[in-house]
Specification:
The protein is mostly beta strands and 220 residues long. It contains no helices and 18 strands.
Length: 220
């Protein structure tokens, strides 16, 4: 079992020379997948039971000759990478030039506020997480998040490359329309957030750099 936002590494071995593998999940709306060679990283964005699949090809883009499937249960808890904070070696690295941040709103409620799951498109090593700053309170009339660095924990043993992740909590949400700002590698991305009793809607016109999907989430 894994939590929402917890990277899950799927890998395979015993492939024949010259063959290839394609990884997938049964719900593209609920997961994010990045595959490289004989492994793939999944990040599930909602609770549920998912099936992940590996299809083996006789050559890259060639016909399939076998497949393998496995189910994974995702709990409704949020992944928190602070469990690695005991590591004696902590590295702070710049976010790679050209990297992209994918934002998924996963919770909108009176108790939790608005919660985004953020993950990088690029892969990093050693249990990577995103270091962030900014003003999440909305006190100044603006909600802003700055993506500052990649944090790696190399003393926790070997790890597969994985996207860096973090949870972003916006609180003090009151009905109305407010500027929404994200900063990444010297570029400012700006739109707006519309808050009502029933839902939260994002006016966001970027399809690269910092992206948001879906653009609306219901309150519960």
């Amino acid at each position: 079992m894994v939590k929402i936002g917890e990277p899950l590494i799927a890998s395979t071995n015993g492939m024949t020379a010259g063959s290839a593998v394609q990884f997938s999940a049964n719900s593209s709306a609920g997961s994010w997948t990045s595959a490289s060679g004989d492994s793939a990283t999944y990040i599930f964005k909602s609770a549920g039971v998912y099936q992940i699949s590996a299809t083996f090809l006789s050559a890259p883009n060639g016909p399939a000759y076998d497949s393998s499937h496995s189910s994974v249960t995702v709990s409704d808890s949020l992944y928190n990478d602070s469990g690695y904070a005991h590591c004696d070696v902590v590295l702070s690295l710049p976010i790679a030039s050209g990297d992209q941040i994918n934002l998924t709103p996963i919770i909108f409620s009176d108790s939790a506020g608005l919660v985004f799951l953020a993950n990088t498109r690029n892969m990093y090593n050693s249990f990577p997480s995103l270091a962030i700053g900014g003003d999440f309170s909305g006190v100044a009339g603006v909600y802003e998040c700055d993506f500052n660095a990649i944090i790696e924990y190399p003393c926790n043993g070997p790890s597969y490359p994985a996207p860096a992740t973090t949870d972003i909590f916006l609180n003090s949400l009151k009905n109305g329309t407010y500027p929404l700002v994200f900063k990444l590698n010297g570029t400012t991305y700006q739109g707006s957030i519309v808050i009502s009793d029933a839902e939260c809607t994002f006016n966001w016109n970027y399809n690269s750099g910092v992206t948001i999907s879906p653009l609306q989430i219901q309150k519960y």
